[in-house]
Amino acid sequence: MNIVSGPSSTKLGNSIAEILGIETVRVAHKKFPDGESYIRFEGEVAGEEVAIVQTTGPPQDTNLIQLFILADAAKDLGAKRVIAVVPYLAYARQDKRFLPGEAISIQTIGKLLKTSGIDELLTVDVHQEKILEKFEIPARNVSAIGLLANYFKSRGLEGAFALAPDKGASEFAIEASKILGGGYGWLHKERDRYTGEVKTEEKTLDVSGRDAIIFDDIISTGGTTANAVKILKKQGARRIFAACVHPLMIGNAKERILQSGAEEIVGTDSVPSDITVVSLAPLLAEALAEMIKG
Ligand code: R5P
After folding, report:
1. Which of 113, 208, 262, 282 has its C-alpha lying 20 to 30 A from 65's C-alpha?
2. Catalytic residue at 30?
């Protein structure tokens, strides 16, 4: 097995390879003046099993096309099995027709993964795990919430309240509270399908005078997390932290959350960002080792 560290996840791919003690195949890449991506394998993949590590955070479309080109080229160069390790799977939130006529974009991505020569997919906290069942290739999802909760525990936040900013994230709060031991809760959120604006309903939480951590899969514009921070603050939480697996951190997301009253925001290297402090490498190395063994 060789690891191909794609352009969007070079550092993470190299860390996974180091943990597993396996070789990496270097990839040269550049953008042509018109924006098209150029890819060249600098090592051999013929006859090999390869794991391509390539996240698909912003710029999503470029990172996706590079993933498809990498997989197709690997097969074309003789690789016998291609596993795509895609920590953040772009378009996963468009998993149904919310409004009439909408494209179910993740279905298209699923088809393209297979068509480009990918045999198996490994991803992390995909927005809705059930979408993977519709993919025509085996797809495995692992969760990084344990890594995030343990990070806070190691920082002395054992006993903090774990909050999910919406019902969809409730499993994250439940999972985190098993590690932090401070109980959990979740809020109800609604998003305007036309404007994207988020409204969060306030509900009484057991947080007065206590530390609280918000756990979500994605922070994009920061609206969802900022609303949850404001509710925690209003209800007298002591210190408020925010954690996410996929820190997309679009625009002023960070400032928005901090200005709402959060002390710190913590993310993983699923998407490299200035709030990335926890690495997915050990989690992905373990999952990949199991997939290689079959
Ligand atoms: C959606 O339900 C996700 O779990 C996140 O809550 C959402 O993507 C966060 O988006 P934003 O940061 O733009 O509110």
Report:
1. 282
2. no
Q: Residue 206 C-alpha to ligand 1 middle, in angstroms?
A: 23
Burial 81-112 (b: 16+ CB within 10 A, else e): bbbbbbbbbbbbbbbeeeeeeeebebbebbee
pLDDT in tens, 31-67: 999 999 999 999 999 999 999 999 999 999 999 999 9
> How far, in Å, CA of 199 to CA of 30, rounded?
41
**Catalytic option among 189, 199, 203, 234:** 189
Residues 6+ apart with CB under 8 A from 194: none
Report CA torsion sign: 124, 127, 130, 134: negative
- How many alpha carbons fall within 13 Å on the CB side of residue 99? 7
Q: Give the Cα separation of 188 and 163 in Å (integer).
A: 11
CA distance 79 to 81: 6
Name the DSSP class of 104.
Answer: -
Question: Is the Cβ–Cβ distance between 221 and 251 less than 8 Å?
Answer: yes
0.70 surpassed by pTM: yes
